[in-house]
Write the structure tokens for this entry.
Amino acid sequence: MADFLMKKSLPPLNWFRAFEASARRLSFTAAAEELGMTQSAVSQQIRALETRLGVGLFVRQARGLALTDDGRKLLPKVEGAIETLSAATAQFGIETQGPHLTIASSVSMIDWVLSPALRAYMAQNPDLSLRLVSTIWPDDFTATQADLQIFFGTQKQAGPNARPLMPSHLIPVKSPDLSGPLSELPLIESVGTSDGWAGWANVFKEPIPRPSVHVDTYGAALGLAKNGVGVALVSAVLAGPELKSGTLVQADPRQIPAKEGYFLNLQSDAPTAKACAAWILSITAQGPG
Amino acid sequence: MADFLMKKSLPPLNWFRAFEASARRLSFTAAAEELGMTQSAVSQQIRALETRLGVGLFVRQARGLALTDDGRKLLPKVEGAIETLSAATAQFGIETQGPHLTIASSVSMIDWVLSPALRAYMAQNPDLSLRLVSTIWPDDFTATQADLQIFFGTQKQAGPNARPLMPSHLIPVKSPDLSGPLSELPLIESVGTSDGWAGWANVFKEPIPRPSVHVDTYGAALGLAKNGVGVALVSAVLAGPELKSGTLVQADPRQIPAKEGYFLNLQSDAPTAKACAAWILSITAQGPG
DNA sequence: CTCAGACATAAGTAATACTAATGGCTGACT
DNA sequence: AGTCAGCCATTAGTATTACTTATGTCTGAG
């Protein structure tokens, strides 16, 4: 009840902005220019705000405006609120000038695939303004305003338009410093995925050690593997760059299929977005060979 | 260009309010109830805010919501801004705490019907905070934020949901100090209405004096009649309390219908508003008898 | 007296904001 | 394992709002 009235008690933000700009410029006409609307719109908004508040905010003069006492009372609070909201939105806002691109991606993909390759890509596109947003799957990606989305899941979860980043099977990787057969090495399990070492044992019908380290992402597993902690069973696309550079090697030449993988979803028609999507598809398809 | 973008950089205040309420309640459904709108509306507003800011603000769960890091970052600023704007408007507006009520009414109805009876009503409702806003018809009542509206006009103007305050026919009233038949007394005409003495002459087919005093409201006419200036032809509902107290008497037992009258429009579901509407309907229906 | 500048208003329309209806998902309960 | 309540998401439709255009009015400068 009281809450219902509360709902009606705040006028539209644009009225406040019209008021603040008019108070600062002492002119509806100048405020209108600044706000990108007509003088008539500003006049109506101020009138509406005055009606809503039940007080006069300006004295209209032949040459512009003067604030009333009520207007002077209102102005500091409105200025403060507008400044707060502007700061609040600015902390998220993307640069809107020049070619720009937002990629929302799983942390692992950013750390292990995108970051290593981005230096070259940015060098090729010096004017591009790029924003990488890391997201935790199974986040709701549509909530993130991004030109490109890369996330981990099933094709069904990703949607029919999402393209898998290949190769998507799982391979065991280890540091080149680790010697010995798979059966004698510590295994690292990524628990946030559907597939893992149990699947490996199932496919090849051979005993393997029980995994001794559990992490929640392939990326974390890769990091541990790189540090020689053990053998990680991870998506081949994720391991690609490390295999290519030799910092990781395949611990066993075999692989198993995976129900889940990384998917790219292009959500923008902008040329910069399409170019980047093509680039990502190309660098992942190259793999370690 | 930059000014144009500036205009677009602040989302509607309602989106922020939807965000704040949802963050506090961790439920779109509960936030919707609080804000007096549907869950669907809140869902869309949050989605729109997330798209505008380019970040996810909530993680949707089966049983409600969780704030994301970005959501937690945004919340204090939004809370601060909303509080500032609420304080800014509250310093002019009605108190929003405790039972409160705003009635927008024609001046005449306030002076001649509501004011005489309000003392008793307020005594019965000591916690009620009441605000009477006098308006000049044919004002745009929708611009006035009021729980109840009472204004003068036609049913068509008032809208289908508006209830007429009865009795709405016109009666001639005078001070008990004035003696003599109608045809020998000065007549007071209310020029701001459709009906008047011409209608009286037309209905009863008898000559009457040409009105010698013209005013623009029934209330003003009543005031002059009470002061013995002459006979006023006014809405019976307006004259009711004065007839009841004997400060005015009917100058002629006859009456004529009126095309216009006073209408009550209830615009709030709050119990305080409904109770007051019922009270107004009851005190006007009692009439002078 | 004329005119430029600025605010106010009416009318019209594009855009927005909301509702109603319904779908999908998840966890609790039986 | 099946059912159902609770909650979010989406679509389609429509009422309402927000804005523009056009024009009127007023005032002070020239």
Summary: Residues 12, 14, 37-38, 40-41, 44-45, 60-63, 142 of chain A lie near DNA strand D (CB under 10 Å from a C1').
